[in-house]
Amino acid sequence: MMKNLEVFHRALKLLEATSKISSVSVRRLNAWGQDGTIKSPYKNIEIPNCTLYEYIWQNLDKWPERTVSVTVMLPNIPDFPLVALGILEAGGVISTINPVYTPHEIQRQLLLSEAKAVVTICETVNTVKEAIKLAKLNIPIIAVKTNGESVPQDIVSFHELTEDVHIDKSCLKEVRRSIDDICFLPYSSGTTGLPKGVQLLILSAIKNVNNLIDKQLNYITTHQDAVMTVLPLFHIYGASVLMFHKMSQGIKLVTVAKFQPETLLDALEKYKTNVLFVAPPLVIMMATHPASSPKKFQYLETIVNGAAPLSETDAERFFTKSERKLDFRQGYGLTETSPVVALTPRGMDNYGCVGYPIPSTNLKIVNSEMKTLGANEKGELLVKGPQVMRGYKDNAVADKETFTEDGWFRTGDLAIADHTGVITISDRLKELIKVKGFQVPPAELEAVLREHPDVSEAAVIGVPHPRKGESPKAFVVLKSNSNTSAKEISEFVEKKVAPYKKINDIMFIDSIPKSSAGKILRRILKEKYC
């Protein structure tokens, strides 16, 4: 694998040329500072001065015989870490794209990220081609074969790049990268608006990975642990918490591409998976699916929930199904924080909270006037720490809205901290819709709706959904003399967005409520119609 990484590194260049956490009982931890800041109760962890690529492989000699990943189904393929680390070693920046995106969605990210090449799978080559055409770009496509299929003639084969021993090294130069360089550019909508490039530094990524290597989530043992990677690796949760962290610990990644209940449950048992990272819909499925049984969960030891809050009731329902109490943890984070901000320690039975700030991380809760609040007072959660992004790419306006003058990052989430500093996320100030843990920005869907020739105005909000968590609901004002149906508009949107962004619930209204400044008042729509 190391040889393949070096070859891919060279191939990319040729394309271009042509802390350990203290052992303290949960009851004794207290995170409150005298100034009202909620400080991490854990010892700060020293960050090594190296690149993320070097950090991941620093302990390779301890477990050279271990398996990096195995595939249950595609496309969360073993090549994904190979591609990601190859890009990093080549001095590039990774910008991940959801493989179910449409050309309309992809072309926007290609332009915003200033992409120089796209690595994809053969099944999505035509979609990427169309996106590149829409963006009016001329950049190479590198395709990974997943089922032995042939790569189209005008596409670069990833496997030929990595396996070609005749690549000329003479034009290659050593890449010098520092911990203050950007290495990852995922896209997030922040608190509002369209997706924006989140500039994560090498320091930010290493900081987040390093903070997970502690007494709570440290799996270095005499055997090789297996982690079920059902969460997509293109998402910051999957990339940082699963791929980068687990590889640095010599843990086997059992990759799962799609959310198919029977396949997932069988894989948990077959691969003796003892660690599982989840989002709420997955926990709910495991607690209710007919194929779920204590036998399927017999090897599970630890479950960590993230991406969206999980209720205490849903956690208890899963324990009832598994017929035993597992080490259940809940974390909180955002794309803009690489992503982890807080995590419950081992043994905390409060399943509704997200625990304490991770090492070197400070939090505070403020009201609408930015006044710091105290224990059991609800307000917006602010973060300060080395894992926070540098800012949004080429978007000074969004940066100004997101960071306070003294450097605190505004999460847009409402939170409460108890008298010891344990954080509970209670609601969102932001208008993002969370569908199965994925961000769906209302502004993006509203823009697509307005592209329909019969739509005059549109507004989108999130409404509760029993399986997805939330689902988009659209309010549409039609142009005069139009008789377009809700089904026709729904089908129009479906062609332009990923499946999880589909709008099946459309209501026609006479006007969209707006503020004096012209901002859509989604709160009024929720109060009046939901």
UniProtKB/TrEMBL annotation:
Family: Belongs to the ATP-dependent AMP-binding enzyme family.
Gene Ontology BP terms: fatty-acyl-CoA biosynthetic process
Lineage: superkingdom: Eukaryota
Regions annotated as coiled coil: none
Keyword Phosphoprotein: no
A GO CC term attached to the entry: peroxisome
Molecular-function annotations in GO: long-chain fatty acid-CoA ligase activity
Presence of keyword Protease: no
Subcellular location: Peroxisome
Signal peptide residues on this chain, from the entry's feature table: none
Domain AMP-binding enzyme C-terminal span(s) in chain numbering: 444-519
Name the UniProt record assigns to this protein: 4-coumarate--CoA ligase 1-like
SUPFAM superfamilies from the UniProt entry: Acetyl-CoA synthetase-like
Sequence ranges assigned to domain AMP-dependent synthetase/ligase in this UniProt record: 69-392
Organism name: Papilio xuthus
Sorted UniProt keywords: Peroxisome
